[in-house]
Amino acid sequence: MDKIAEQMEGYSGADITNVCRDASLMAMRRRIEGLTPERYETCQKDEMHMPTTMEDFETALTKVSKSVSAADLEKYENG
Predict the structure, then answer these.
(1) For residue 17, how many C-alpha atoms fall within 13 Å in the half-sphere facing its CB?
(2) Percent of the chain with pLDDT over 90
(3) What is the distance between the alpha carbons of residues 8 and 69, in angstroms, rounded to a whole number?
(4) Which stretches of the chain are DSSP H helices?
(5) Nearest by Cα to 53 from 78, 31, 76
(6) Cβ atoms 68, 15 nearer than 8 A
(7) Contact in structure between 25 and 18 (CB atoms under 8 Å)
(8) Residues 40, 32: contact at Cβ < 8 Å?
(9) 35 phi/psi in degrees, rounded to 5
(10) How confident is the model at residue 15 (pLDDT cuts 50, 70, 90)?
(11) Which position has the higher pLDDT, 8 or 68?
């Protein structure tokens, strides 16, 4: 968690939410990969749970950019 937090330095709360959502969806996509639509539809909810990995977070971080600039952060910190 500390490594992920360091990599998200300067990300807004909404940015962090997007990273987490994308990372968790990657885990689910791995689970359903290769399933037929019929098999996917019959999966139980507990079958769909897949742990989110560090790799999922690192991949999500490459897709989600910071929406807050350094100038915005400085403005906020200086009041």
Answers:
(1) 4
(2) 29
(3) 13
(4) 2-7, 13-32, 37-42, 54-63, 70-78
(5) 31
(6) yes
(7) no
(8) yes
(9) -80, 145
(10) very high
(11) 8
27-58 per-position pLDDT tens digit: 888 877 877 877 767 777 666 677 899 999 99
Residue 44 CA to residue 78 CA, distance in Å, equals 51
Exposed, middle or buried: residue 23 (CB in 10 Å: 0-12, 13-18, 19+)? buried
pTM above 0.70, yes or no: yes
Domains present along the chain, CATH in parentheses = 2-78 (1.10.8.60)
Q: What pLDDT, on a 0 to 100 scale, did the predictor assign at position 14? A: 92
Question: Phi-psi region for residue 18, left (φ > 0), alpha (ψ -120 to 50) or beta?
Answer: alpha
Residue 4 CA to residue 77 CA, distance in Å, equals: 23
